[in-house]
Amino acid sequence: MKKPNPFKYYKTSPEIIKLAVMYYVRFPLSLRNVEDILHERGIDICHETVRFWWNKFGTHFANGLKQRRSPYSHSNWRWHIDEVFVKINGQNHYLWRAVDHEGVVLDCFVSKRRDKKTALKFLKKLIKTYGNPNKIVTDKLASYGAALRDLGIKHLQETTQYANNLAENSHLHFRRRERGMNRFRSMHSLQKFVAIQATFQNHFNHQRHLEQRQHFKALRATSLNQWRQIAMA
């Protein structure tokens, strides 16, 4: 059965919609920045149109990228888990993030608290999706130890100083976006954005500092080709 065309009733080209969404999610640009960049290329749209497009098609594009990723693209050798404060309407919330030892974002989760119950919920979700890792690196927050103890995998935890820098550095992409977007207005919008951003980050991140130039260029070209195929599917 042929899939319905999500762009059927839009006058704008799917390529333009896709380009606007990629600019907004992948790079630390505001809605008005994207509007100005597209205007320079002869595309006259309003920044509110960009907002509508990313809300409408962001999840669609992210799912397309996930389908093109190998099921073995992540590693269970070592997980790094960390949480950061995020202000929503003046109140502190917490963004939990798990990455593997290669920097691939496994999952993101937004909560009002960072207690044992929330840590347990996040860890159960990770294990259900990816299975048990060989090691879990966290900070010294007591909620992690209590949750891992309930799961019977407390022996996998490592809390060595500086060992969790990988997870902390993974938050930098989000912090740059948070400033560009002037913070978030609700938990739902935050959860939606970080999930989509993580998928884009995984797809386009090839750790250029570790790869030889020619190999990096080949990986980048492959990622771009896969991205261009999404709107055609």
Structure characterization notes:
The chain is an alpha/beta fold. The chain folds into two domains: 14-67 and 208-230, no CATH class; 79-185, 2-Layer Sandwich (Nucleotidyltransferase, domain 5), CATH 3.30.420.10. 52% of the residues lie in helices and 13% in strands. It is built from eight helices and five strands. It has a five-stranded mixed β-sheet with strand order 3-2-1-4-5, with helices on both faces. A hairpin with a 4-residue loop joins strand 2 and strand 3 (105-111). Helix 1 crosses helix 3 (47-67), helix 2 (31-40) crosses helix 3 and helix 4 (116-130) crosses helix 5. The radius of gyration is 19 Å and the shape is globular. The two termini are 13 Å apart. The mean pLDDT is 89.
Tally of domains: 2
CATH hierarchy: architecture of the largest domain: 2-Layer Sandwich
The succession of helices and strands, N to C, reads HHHEEEHEHEHHH
Helix content: 40-55%
* Helical stretch tally: 8
Q: In one word, what is the shape? A: globular
CATH superfamily of the largest domain: Ribonuclease H-like superfamily/Ribonuclease H
CATH level-3 fold name of the largest domain: Nucleotidyltransferase, domain 5
Report the top-level CATH class of the largest domain: Alpha Beta
Name the strands of the widest sheet in spatial order: 3-2-1-4-5
Mean pLDDT: 89
Runs with pLDDT <50, length 5+?
Answer: none
- How large a portion of the residues is in β-strands, by DSSP E? 5-15%
Structural class estimated from helices and strands: alpha/beta
- C-alpha Rg (nearest Å): 19 Å
